[in-house]
């Protein structure tokens, strides 16, 4: 504010001298809630001048400094003397408003959250009356309570103090004041304060809660007696999770939700399967007894299993899906998000209304595993938003054997990570199931209204060890002495209902007997279970096929030309960057038949044919719009206004949808998301592209535990395509190898495809094959870098239109096969190095054969291509990667299978190395020349 304006304003205001501290406090209250101060003060603050069009209350620290500066400079500025200091009653009014705010901010720190009463809560002086210059002598004084949503404008301090403690320091600890959006904070305050965090609930609801607790407790005791010592990762201590989930699904269905997708780790999973999703208990008991279906492949342990069913709610049946989950606990979260995104798009419900994601975490895992942060970071982005997720922490206060907070995390709560996306956090004592039900309903309402994540911290305990074979007293003696004496949640709540006259003791006992009888009978124990009718995707067209299943692969050349012209038809008002413009001018020449097609044009043409046929495409990656190596340019950026234009979205009316997103800087979470998406939407060509193939090792857990083995373990089909730029260009250890060997080592049971296309026609037909062929297997592609613009790596439209992806490509030069003395087998970019050197050498006695698909190994095709060389005894496998990497060790047995009997097979390539590549270009060039010469030189 300009000094002259400030002086004039000061001269006529109350903001002076001895009033400064008081005014600051009043202004703090006004900023938090304009209605909390008296009208005359509100008018003063409302009327503050603006500086450059910005209201003063947008930055309180600057205002406060100006107050203090003016107070100090008052005499020098020749302003009028300050009025008398504010009265004591006015000052206490401000103190009362500060007390309310203190409870909103920090009441959770004094809440009764731990069922075992082991938490040592630090003293919070902000919650003490004396900190605000108040005392019990003020209890009978009536104060205005501002925005405190109790339904009264004023209360005695005594009433207010009790109310604040009931609301914020009972069984619920609410954290929401970190949220910057005022509307969200006001909404939460209204919801929490209006009922003092304890709404009235009906007898029917109470009985339903007790039934849930009976089921949770009954299942665990039954399994413990029937299968003593067997691992089950018991829910005991966190029993409230069962009525919580059933209440959440019921409320979601009533609000219009059609599907709920749940991701959770081990703890309580078997209980959820039986008591929420309705898995037949007899099937679970058979699994404990070691019985299994031989047709299910390798299988998995029972506490990783997924399940699907329908659940009856007042709003109609809701389809439930519990995602399969490996022991890498939190990795299931982005998988669930991807599955939900696919379902939302299928239902045309991008606001999240139709499908609800629910993730259930462990307290140590959510704070300790980085994929949680990655998933939070994705939650509001364009390509990955799902309308908010309800996140539940089963907080049993022990991470395996670690219970000391200073060893498990560096924050007060395990849920503090949720603050990075300003999610409200509701801590709740699991021994108070009515409070649990309240925060569950509140969390769902918040998610549905604001389309954002919300966290519930279900503070409980673990009655047994990490698994039932552990001895927890060895590492947590005091905790388990307490647990041993602590009654189970069912008993606590049954006693409460009996004491209040809601349910008699014998009625509670009858519920226990009925549940035990249902388990003995072995049938479904969930009243709301219904046969599945609500899921909306049909996998039947993709079942029962092998690699040779026929499909319509050819495409007319005229059609390709037509689509090529549509790809290069850019509106006049879209101004392209100069290099991009040159690229599109070249593509026009390709469309006109004046130039051979390069990689980027062929790839875009593949997508054009797919969307033209009505099939959807989804591509994500850190540079997927333009391509890391500046080759794709499927998303064009207008240099005039930074708007974007996608030719692939403008192929024809009614075409398939295509979405291309430059993703957040994550491999693990983004790829897991795309895996989840692909498992829920088989009709879409789903592609994840690594920025460099080397970076995919950040997502190794997804490759290992989902993509390579999901079908064998769980019967989960997935058609995800993974593009991994790979090739030795002298760019060092982290920009050369996509670690081909790791993918080949995981090849078995026809679990996926590993391809290394070397021409534009090959990538065109490979992508089309992946989309059109009626089977769904993951496709791992070692995609190129330098080949994107290599003068020899070009194709004609005729090569594209024949529609065939060649798993093996034989010798392309006009060599006399009878004069060939050596055959070099290779894959990828090294072929062009070999070809150019052979031509330079004018050699005619060495044939080059490319393996474009390494798995499933195309033995029959190889034998046909290699038939002219049956006389050759000298065979070489040539690769760029070090000897202990690449395809040599993993695929050597396949090479031996197809070469002539009695022939010798030799390796030509880099020596074994701990590093994927050297860092010095000069050394790289020496190595590359040596391996090429070694492969071509016949001694």
From TrEMBL:
Named cofactor requirement(s): thiamine diphosphate
Q: What is its EC number?
A: 1.2.4.2
Q: Which Gene3D superfamilies match?
A: 3.40.50.12470, 3.40.50.970, Multifunctional 2-oxoglutarate metabolism enzyme, C-terminal domain (3.40.50.11610), TPP helical domain (1.10.287.1150)
Q: Which organism is it from?
A: Alteromonas arenosi
What SUPFAM superfamilies does the record point to? Answer: Thiamin diphosphate-binding fold (THDP-binding) (SSF52518)
Question: Which Pfam families does the UniProt entry name for this protein?
Answer: 2-oxogl_dehyd_N, E1_dh, OxoGdeHyase_C, Transket_pyr
Mind listing the GO molecular function terms for this protein? oxoglutarate dehydrogenase (succinyl-transferring) activity
Q: What is this protein called?
A: oxoglutarate dehydrogenase (succinyl-transferring)
InterPro entries documented for this protein: 2-oxogl_dehyd_N, 2oxoglutarate_DH_E1, DH_E1, KGD_C_sf, ODO-1/KGD_C, THDP-binding, Transketolase-like_Pyr-bd
Query: What's this protein's function?
Result: E1 component of the 2-oxoglutarate dehydrogenase (OGDH) complex which catalyzes the decarboxylation of 2-oxoglutarate, the first step in the conversion of 2-oxoglutarate to succinyl-CoA and CO(2).
Q: Does the keyword Oxidoreductase apply?
A: yes
Transketolase-like pyrimidine-binding domain boundaries = 597-790
PANTHER family, per database record: 2-OXOADIPATE DEHYDROGENASE COMPLEX COMPONENT E1, 2-OXOGLUTARATE DEHYDROGENASE
For this UniProt entry, which residues form the secretion signal?
A: none
In the record, the note on similarity to other proteins reads: Belongs to the alpha-ketoglutarate dehydrogenase family.
Q: What keywords tag this UniProt record?
A: Oxidoreductase, Thiamine pyrophosphate
């Amino acid at each position: 504010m300009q000094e002259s304006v400030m002086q004039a304003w000061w001269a006529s205001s109350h903001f002076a001298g001895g009033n400064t501290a008081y005014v600051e406090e009043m202004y703090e209250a006004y900023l938090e809630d304009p209605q909390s101060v008296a009208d005359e003060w509100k008018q003063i603050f409302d009327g503050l001048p603006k500086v450059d069009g910005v209201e003063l209350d947008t930055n309180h620290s600057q205002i406060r400094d100006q107050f203090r500066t003016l107070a100090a400079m008052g005499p020098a500025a020749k302003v009028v003397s300050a009025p008398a200091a504010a009265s004591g009653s006015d000052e206490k009014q401000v103190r009362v408003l500060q007390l309310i705010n203190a409870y909103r901010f920090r009441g959770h720190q004094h809440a009764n959250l731990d069922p075992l009463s082991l938490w040592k809560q630090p003293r919070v002086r902000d919650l003490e009356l004396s900190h605000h210059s108040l005392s019990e002598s003020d209890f009978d004084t009536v104060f205005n309570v501002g925005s405190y949503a109790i339904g009264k404008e004023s209360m005695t301090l005594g009433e207010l103090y009790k109310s604040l403690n009931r609301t914020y320091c009972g069984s619920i600890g609410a954290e929401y004041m970190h949220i910057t959006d005022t509307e969200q904070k006001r909404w939460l305050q209204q919801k929490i304060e209006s009922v003092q965090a304890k709404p009235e609930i009906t007898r029917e609801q109470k009985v339903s809660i007790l039934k849930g607790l009976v089921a949770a407790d009954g299942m665990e005791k039954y399994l413990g007696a029937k299968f003593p010592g067997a691992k089950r990762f018991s829910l005991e201590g966190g029993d409230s999770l069962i009525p919580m989930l059933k209440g959440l699904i019921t409320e979601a269905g009533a609000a219009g939700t059609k599907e709920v997708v749940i991701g959770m780790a081990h703890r309580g999973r078997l209980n959820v399967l039986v008591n929420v999703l309705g898995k037949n208990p007899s099937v679970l008991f058979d699994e404990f007894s070691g019985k299994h279906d031989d047709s299910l492949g390798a299988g998995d342990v029972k506490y990783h299993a997924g399940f699907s069913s329908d659940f009856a709610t007042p709003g109609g049946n809701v389809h439930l899906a519990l995602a399969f989950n490996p022991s890498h606990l939190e990795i299931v979260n982005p998988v669930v998000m991807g599955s939900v995104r696919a379902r939302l798009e299928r239902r045309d419900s991008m606001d999240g209304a139709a499908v609800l994601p629910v993730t259930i975490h462990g307290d140590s895992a959510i704070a300790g595993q980085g994929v949680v942060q990655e998933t939070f970071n994705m939650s509001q982005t364009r390509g990955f938003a799902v309308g908010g997720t309800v996140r539940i922490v089963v907080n049993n206060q022990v991470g395996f054997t670690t219970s000391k907070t200073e060893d498990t995390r560096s924050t007060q709560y395990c849920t503090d990570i949720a603050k990075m996306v300003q999610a409200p956090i509701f801590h709740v004592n699991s021994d108070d199931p009515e409070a649990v039900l309240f925060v569950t309903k509140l969390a769902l309402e918040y998610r549905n209204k604001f389309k954002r994540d919300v966290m519930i911290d279900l503070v409980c305990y673990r009655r047994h060890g990490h698994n039932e074979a552990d001895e927890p007293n060895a590492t947590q003696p005091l905790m388990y002495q307490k647990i041993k004496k602590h009654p189970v949640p069912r008993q606590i709540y049954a006693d409460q209902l009996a004491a209040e006259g809601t349910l008699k003791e014998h009625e509670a006992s009858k519920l226990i007997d009925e549940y035990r009888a249902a388990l003995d009978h072995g049938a479904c124990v969930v009243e709301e279970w219904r046969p599945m009718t609500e899921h909306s995707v049909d996998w039947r067209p993709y079942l029962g096929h092998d690699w040779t299943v026929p499909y319509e692969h050819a495409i007319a050349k005229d059609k390709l030309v037509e689509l090529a012209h549509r790809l290069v038809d850019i509106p006049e008002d879209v101004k392209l960057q100069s290099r991009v413009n040159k690229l599109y001018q070249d593509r026009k020449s390709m469309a006109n038949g004046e130039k051979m097609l390069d990689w980027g044009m062929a790839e875009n043409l593949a997508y054009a044919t797919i969307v033209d046929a009505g099939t959807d495409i989804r591509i994500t990656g850190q540079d997927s719009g333009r391509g890391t190596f500046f080759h794709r340019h499927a998303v064009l950026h207008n240099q005039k206004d930074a708007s974007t234009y996608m030719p692939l979205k403008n192929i024809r009316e009614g075409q398939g949808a295509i979405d291309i997103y430059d993703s957040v800087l994550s491999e693990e979470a983004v790829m897991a998301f795309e895996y989840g998406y692909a498992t829920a939407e088989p009709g879409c060509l789903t592609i994840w592209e690594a920025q460099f193939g080397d970076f995919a090792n950040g997502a190794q857990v997804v490759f290992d535990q989902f993509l390579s083995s999901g079908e064998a373990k769980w019967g989960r089909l997935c058609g995800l395509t993974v593009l991994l730029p790979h090739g030795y260009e002298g760019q060092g250890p982290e920009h050369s190898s996509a670690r081909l060997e790791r993918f080949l080592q995981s090849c078995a049971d026809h679990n996926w495809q590993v391809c290394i296309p070397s021409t534009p026609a090959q990538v065109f037909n490979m992508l089309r094959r992946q989309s059109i062929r009626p089977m769904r297997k993951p496709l791992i592609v070692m995609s190129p870098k330098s080949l994107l613009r290599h003068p020899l790596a070009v194709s004609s439209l005729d090569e594209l239109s024949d529609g065939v992806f060649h798993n093996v490509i034989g010798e392309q030069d006009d060599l006399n096969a009878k004069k060939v003395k050596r055959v070099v087998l290779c894959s990828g970019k090294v072929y062009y190095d070999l070809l150019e050197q052979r031509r330079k050498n004018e050699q005619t006695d060495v044939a080059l054969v490319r393996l474009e698909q390494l798995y499933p190994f195309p033995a029959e095709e190889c034998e046909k291509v290699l038939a002219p060389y049956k006389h050759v005894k000298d065979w070489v496998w040539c690769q760029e990667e070090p000897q202990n990497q690449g395809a040599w060790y993993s695929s050597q047995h396949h090479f031996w299978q197809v070469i002539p009997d009695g022939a010798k097979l030799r390796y030509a390539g880099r020596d074994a190395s701990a590093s994927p590549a050297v860092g010095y270009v000069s050394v790289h060039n020496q190595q590359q020349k040596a391996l090429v010469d070694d492969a071509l030189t016949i001694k």
